[in-house]
Design a protein that fits this description.
Keywords: Cytoplasm. One of its GO terms (cellular component) is cytoplasm. The chain is of the alpha+beta class and about 250 residues long. The chain has 11 helices and 11 strands. The protein has 3 domains: about 80 residues, Sulfate adenylyltransferase; about 80 residues, Sulfate adenylyltransferase, CATH 3.10.400; about 60 residues, no CATH class. The strands form 2 sheets. It has a 6-stranded mixed β-sheet with strand order 7-11-10-9-6-8. Strands 1-2-3-4-5 form a 5-stranded antiparallel β-sheet. The longest helix has 20 residues.
């Protein structure tokens, strides 16, 4: 789904959405993920507003305390970000792909049935079609993707052909790195400026775009404060060959 997120001028946010809408968002999430009910006071603190950012292509992003926790498309189901899922790993059903499917999952490819039924893969839950699932990888500790089942798990096993799960969010996509945007600057501020690094140019390498965006905002804020920037693109790449935002440097996967 984050493939549709363009992050260009035109995004808008409702920082003061109605209380009724905040309740609807909260109730929809808890209804879809009942295992989160015991943590609801931690996830949705009292007197802390739920912020919904409306992006282009009908994608909505839900934030709490400036942290992105869920997203959806139009009126569809809410998907957790992987960072949120890593905090609550038991919040949703899990499907496991074999080791050979990992590189395809991390490139954004949808998960085929054979990747879920071959040796090393695992399906231990009975789910209908259109179920939100966490995608684990053989030999890994944390979820590598969040998806939506294209068919029931019983059909995945019996048919064992074609697409089994739609890959909605995976390690290294813009949804993975976008949390850092909210730590450095207002999401709407950076999406409304013509001077920000062009997203389209780095669409397939979001961590490189994040590098440039991080540097851009650091320089921008330094200028406003009247101080000299102390971070450069060379500094980032010399310390981190790929990127400080690349999933291989996050120590989670």
């Amino acid at each position: 789904m984050f493939k549709k997120l363009t992050l260009k001028p035109g995004s808008s946010a409702n920082s003061q959405i109605a209380n009724s809408m905040q309740r609807n968002i909260k109730n929809s999430i808890l209804a879809l993920y009942p295992n989160l009910t015991q943590y609801q006071d931690e996830i949705f603190p009292k007197k802390v507003a739920i912020v919904q950012v409306k992006c282009q292509n009908h994608i909505n992003i839900v934030l709490i305390n400036n942290e992105i926790i869920f997203f959806n498309e139009r009126e569809g189901p809410y998907y957790p970000t992987l960072r949120f899922l890593h905090k609550y790993p038991d919040m949703m059903p899990i499907l496991q792909v074999d080791r050979g499917a990992i590189k395809f999952v991390l490139s954004g490819a949808n998960i085929m049935c054979r990747g879920l039924t071959s040796p090393g893969a695992r399906i231990e839950v009975d789910l209908p079609a259109n179920s939100v699932v966490a995608i684990m990888a053989e030999g890994k500790t944390h979820a590598s993707a969040v998806g939506l089942t294209k068919m029931s798990t019983s059909d995945i096993k019996s048919i064992n052909d074609g697409m089994g799960v739609i890959n909605q969010h995976y390690l290294g996509d813009i949804g993975w790195v976008i949390d850092y945007i909210t730590l450095q600057c207002n999401l709407i501020e950076i999406t409304s400026k013509k001077s920000i690094p062009a997203w389209k140019k780095y669409h397939h390498e979001p961590y490189k775009w994040m590098n440039k965006l991080f540097i851009h905002q650091t320089k921008h804020r330094s200028t406003k404060l009247g101080i000299r920037p102390i971070i450069t693109q060379q500094t980032i790449f010399s310390k981190h060959p790929k990127s400080i935002f690349h999933p291989s440097n996050q120590l989670l996967f």
